[in-house]
Amino acid sequence: MRCRSILLACAMMIAPLATDPGLAQNLDSEAATLAPGKYAWNQDAGAEGPISIVVSLPRQLAYVYRGGTLIGVSTVSTGRDGYPTPTGTFTILQKAAMHKSNRYNDAPMPWMQRLTWDGVALHSGSVPGYHSSHGCVHLPDAFARELYGITRVGATVTITDDDGSGAVDDISAPPVDDSAEATPDAGLRVASAR
């Protein structure tokens, strides 16, 4: 509860999502209708700056920001009963295009982006529409690959148990680390995991 209060206080201090209203509305509409394993992406939004990510546990969605501008949203699958995904603000500690789990019988973790040294990461995995992981944040494979391509070690990832009131702009971009640069890609699209 204390962690949630701290996150909410930090979110209130951060300016609300400052994006082109059309872009935010478009991605908000996409987020509301995404089926499990799908995502919406608009890296060609003219935004500049470092990448940051917000994962909403209740919504089972990840929001990707470039310099505070929403550029993508994806369905996710987080920790199932007995394997909670921790909340808080993390930085990407390590990246590996193909990693094998040290804890779960060398299970493959493609496009792994480590958030903690005790095993929590963003990576490609099953996104069935419910909590199914051992605490990691599973992403659709194509989305995980694209996200991996634009993030840098040191990028900020906020995992929250707050779902706001239902609008994307209620979940603000976390503070950005200017040293975590990113490169642009292009196009809004909705895709499914392979």
For the sheet with most strands, the description reads: 7 strands, mixed
Radius of gyration, whole Å: 15 Å
CATH superfamily label: L,D-transpeptidase catalytic domain-like
Q: What's the CATH C level?
A: Mainly Beta
Say how many strands there are.
11
Account of the protein in words:
- The structure is a single chain.
- The protein has 194 residues and is an alpha+beta fold.
- It has a single domain, classed as Beta Barrel (L,D-transpeptidase catalytic domain-like).
- The chain has three helices and eleven strands; from the N terminus they run H-H-E-E-E-E-E-E-E-E-E-H-E-E.
- The protein has helices at 2-13, 21-33, 141-150, and strands at residues 38-42, 51-56, 61-66, 69-75, 88-91, 94-100, 108-114, 121-124, 137-139, 156-160, 188-192.
- A seven-stranded mixed beta sheet has the order 5-10-2-3-4-1-11, with helices on both faces. The chain has a four-stranded mixed beta sheet with strand order 6-7-8-9, covered by helices on one side.
- The chain starts with a helix and ends with a strand.
- 45% of the residues are buried.
